Each structure stands twice: as structure tokens, then as C-alpha cells.
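Listing 4. Sequential folding, example run.
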Amino acid sequence: MIEIPVYSSDGKKTSTIKLDEQLLGGEVRPALLKQAYVMYHANRRQGSATTRSRGMKEGSTRKLYRQKGTGNARMGAARTNVRRGGGVAFAKQPKSWRQRMPVKMRRLAARNAVLSKAVDGELKIIDRLGFDTPKTKRFAGVLEALGINRTCLLALDGQDVTSALSARNIADVQTINIEQINAYDLLSRRFFLVEKEVFTGWLDGQTGKAKAREEAA
């Protein structure tokens, strides 16, 4: 068990949460985290770069002038890649860089990334943000009180709009719905900030969509 301190908005420790490593993969798995990170990074590539080769350019294939007797350097067709307006030697073509991972591996990678944050002391759990109205200055004060001085991923419940609006103007803070957290976003930021109730609900699988499915059943 790992004991994670829970803080108030002014940075004071109020309680602790006992975190079972087995729920998050048992131990930090660098190979799995790297595989997931590379996959998410590759899937963000657009892959639409394209250029025209010599065969795609319009124009004659005739030599511009005879090879000898003119005093000039020898020259081929106008579409050659060494002339302005000619084709590209190794033309780029649209390509898909997408990679795939099984769903269970992606979920395990996300939980294992949370475990790595907990082990490194970069998981910050707060009792409640409690913003009645969007206040960027107040949210910046919360970050300072918690010692968050680098990039931060803030995981929120989908209904918490005021906290998202409070954080959106801070350059080093990215907000994300707790149901959408993944290894890439977690590993790309130094700190992981989340409310206690939201975090325990995510651990137990009791997020907004899961609750809705249970109520419908």
C-alpha cells in the first residue's frame, strides 16, 4: 500500500489515501509505458505531407539541349529534380503512422502511469477545488500552495466546468476529463492533480458514464 496525502486548497495536509499498487499494475512497467507513449504520439501524426516526383510533373522528357558542343554543362529534361520547378527526388506521399494496442493494455498503461506519479511524489490529491465562479488567480494560488511549479495535468469530473475555466488560462496546466486520462497525457506533464472524490471514483470504476450505465440498468 502507498499512502498518498490529501491536501486542502491552501496546501495543508488533511488526510491520506491508501493506494493499492495491484489496482495500478503492481509495479511501474517502463516497457509498457514507453509502448503506450509511442503509440499515442504516432497516432497524433497527420501523415498528409505530399510532394510531386518527376513522373507527376507536367512537361516534356526531351533533353533541353544536346549534350556536347554548347559549352554548357550537360542537362537533362526540365522535370529533373536538380532544376527549379522540377520534381522531387524522393517524393513524400500520404502515409498512416497509426499504431494499435489492445484496450486492456491501454487501460493498464494509464493506471500504471498514475502509479509512477504516486511513486515519484507527483500525484497531488486535493479535497475539493470548490470554485463557485471561474477564478484564474485563485487557481494559481492553489498550485503554488501545493508546490506545483512545473507542468500539470488536472483531471476533472465532466460536470466541473468552473474549475476547467479557472485553469484554462494557465500555460502549464492541461485539463482533461477523468474518464479520458491516458498514459501519454500523464507522462507528458510533471504533476497530476485530481480531487479526492474524483480519483477514488476513477479507481473504483465509478465515473460519470459508469454511474449512468448502472442507473440505467
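-- end of first protein; second protein begins --
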Amino acid sequence: MLPTVPYIATAQPDRSDVQTDLLLLEEVTKTYVTDGQHVEALNGVTLAVNPGEFVALVGRSGCGKSTLLNLAGAMDFPTSGRVLLDGLITSELNDYGLTRLRREKVGFVFQSFQLLHTLSVLENVELPLLLAGKIDTRSQAQRQLELVELGEFGARMPHQLSGGQMQRVAIARAMVHCPRLLLADEPTGNLDTQTRNLVLALLRRIADEQKTAILMATHSAESAAIADRVIKLRDGRIAEVVAR
């Protein structure tokens, strides 16, 4: 069973046996044009994330957390600077390369779960595998549900689940293709304290056991406390880095 309280890392785990710098942002700036005005969402951000490392992004709304996640997942590209994911410069990939990178290397988890309510729980988890043209998709999806302690819920529809159960299904869907990087945008924002701790413990276990790098944006200091490093953003810049 999943623990009801998260494990809090007190030191950086030894990862000398794995490749470093799975994700690397080099002097990244991102500027948007809104109503004719240039808005700088990120300014000169440099950040490296290693395999199996859990990194939390914290800061007020508008500080650049979601923008950074979008750049990390190759959903958007920097105005200047570079983003490298598993050694690939995201802005230099063509459409095919970007699609393959996202499908094979990255998993996404959102605050609002974003499950398809016309599909069963098992079908939601299976969907990324089907889109990628994989075989034996049903059994892989079932195994992933069992890893998040929801193996008996596959036939249910999303509306039949609690908020915490839906988020665990969303995590199973994000992890079913074994991504090297998991991006989580406020994954516990809609959950009560006990359920939040269950979800955080699951994410911590994924980082520790599967060596998946996790980059999580959160407003919650309690949620951030589970991470190996906390990156504090202010006005699009890294204001402080706290290692646990």
C-alpha cells in the first residue's frame, strides 16, 4: 500500500551510475507579445535536472513556472537560449522529431487531471500507447494501474472516482510509456491533505525506483518539501535554490 505521508529526502541521492543532465536549460529567455506589449515570462534561466531527481518549482502566479514546464516538455520554445532534453535541442527538431520526443521521453500531469470522460479508466491509461502504435497495450495499461494501486478500477469511468483516484490514473497514463521526464503542473492543487500526501508519495516513489526525473510546479511549500531541490522563481528569474 502507498504510505499516507510522503518520504522527505534529507540529502541528494547517489546517482553516479546514471547519465546526468537529462534536462538542461541554458540561459533561457521567453518573451510573449500580449496586446502589443512584450511580456518576459522567463529571463536568463539556467537549470539542469538529472535522471531520478525530483525538482520543485515554486513562486507566485505569473513567475514563470508553467512557461518553464512548457519549454521543458518541448510544448514551446525559448526566445533565446537553448533547451536540451536527453541531449536533443528541442528548437532544432522537426515536427516528427518533436512528436516522437514528447511521446517517448515526456509525461505530463495536470491539476485538472484531463482524463477523457468518455473512456474508461483503463482506456485512458492505454491511450498514449495506442497513439504511439504500440502492441500489447491493454496489459501494459493494466500493469500501470496496478502500480498506482488502482488495478481493480479499470472498468470504471472517471466520474466514478474521487479526485485523488483520478490524479493517480493521470499519473499512470503519464507513466505508461516509461518517460524519462515527468512534468507535473500543480498536481495536488485540487486535493485534500491526506490525498495530496498519497499522490506526493507516489511521485517520490517513481523518482526513486524508476529513476524518472520529475519537474513539479507548485504553490505549496508542503508539496515542495518532498523534492530533492526547490527552485524559487521570481519575475521570470531563479531567485533561490534550496537543496534538501
